[in-house]
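We emphasize that the prediction below concerns an isolated chain of 289 residues; any contacts that depend on oligomerization or on bound cofactors are therefore not represented. The input was used exactly as deposited, without trimming of termini.
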Amino acid sequence: MDVLTPIAPAPARLPAHVMELVPNLSAGARRAIARKDLHDGLAMSRLAFTLGWLDIKLRYRGSVLGPFWLTLSTGIMVLSMGVLYSQLFHMELHDYMPYLALSLVLWNALSAIVTDACLCFTNAEGTIRSIRLPFTVYASRAVVRNVLVLAHNIIVIVCVFAWYNVWPGLAGLGSIVGVVLWLADAMAACLLLGAVCARFRDIPPIVGSIVQIAFFLTPIIWRPELIGTGARWLVLNPFYPLLALVRDPLLNQVPPTGVWVAGFVWSGLLCVTAALLFARVRARLAFWV
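Result of the prediction step, given as a token string:
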């Protein structure tokens, strides 16, 4: 060896924040980084809540009623649709109106979460490229934003229940399980759809169309018993068990066992798929948005 040839130093280990951006890591390393992202993002829940609340304030800046415009429009929709469809379905308004109010409010929240999940990363393009934050923060931000909107619309449910003097009993506590599933699924949907839509910009319109079709295929304005024996196939619709697990207990009804099983199965598939995909593509998200 020539004495003038310098000896190459041993390669130093890359810093953690640089390793996170390396796309060709091993599967184990990618999963570890994704778990760290999830842990750090959940630890910054106060920041996610602040950003979500700021989104609501900026969206309705200068408005007199603010997000209560959504509450007002939802109340008018429940009133008009309740009077019309109770006549079409030959149902008593006392029984149908609480069902419709609860269904519409929950569906609006569910569809809004799915729609916002598609854009949770692309809408934060400037922040992602300028500040190093866990990607889970942006997903949590979208979830918090929609939970706050749902909290405003709960007023419609309370008003309808109070008018007809229909209140959930102890069975209503069963909806807590459904709410927990909703929160887990909302986070998984944001990580899954947010990553896919950041890569393929044609996906959000497709998801929007699917949500519109699902509105008519899901028992929201109609009851499952109206389709007779065909109701047993409703569990193949992933929106139905998730909706029923929250709605039925609040209507003093116990969801069937098949609905419980379907709800946990669909939620498990969504969470596992989201975890695997997020771990695989996380390093590329900053380049896709």
